[in-house]
Amino acid sequence: MCERSENKGVGRRDFLRLAAKGAGGMALVMVGGGHSLVSANAVREGGADRRGPMEYDPSSHRYLYVIDIDKCIGCGSCVRACERENDVPKHFFRTWIERYQVSRTGEVFVDSPNGGHDSFEPSETGADISKAFFVPKLCNHCDSTPCVQLCPVGASFVSPEGVVLVDDKRCIGCSYCVQGCPYGSRFIHPTTHTASKCTLCYHRLVRGETTACVQNCPTGARMLGDARSLGDKVAEIVATSKVHVLKPELHTEPKCFYVNASREVR
Amino acid sequence: MHAQSLNFLFPNDVHIMWSLMIVLYPYITGLVAGAFIVGSLYHVFGRTELKPVSRLAMVASLSFLLVATLPLLAHLGHPERALNIVITPHFTSAMSAFGMIYAMYLILVVLEIWLLFRKEIIELAQRSTGLKRAILKMVALGVYDISEEARRADHRVVKVLAALGIPAACILHGYVGFMFGSVKANAFWSTPLMPIIFLFSAVTSGIAMIIILYETLSAVNGRKISGDCLQSLAGYLWLFATVTVTLEILEIVSLSYAQDEEWLIVGPLIRDKIAFSFIGIQMVFGSLIPFILLGIVVTLKRYLTAGMRNVITFIAALILLIQVFSMRWNVVIGGQIFSKSGIGFRENYIPELGTREGVAAALCIFLIPFLIMGAFNRLLPLAVEDGDAKAGSH
Question: DSSP secondary-structure letter at B269?
Answer without folding.
Answer: I
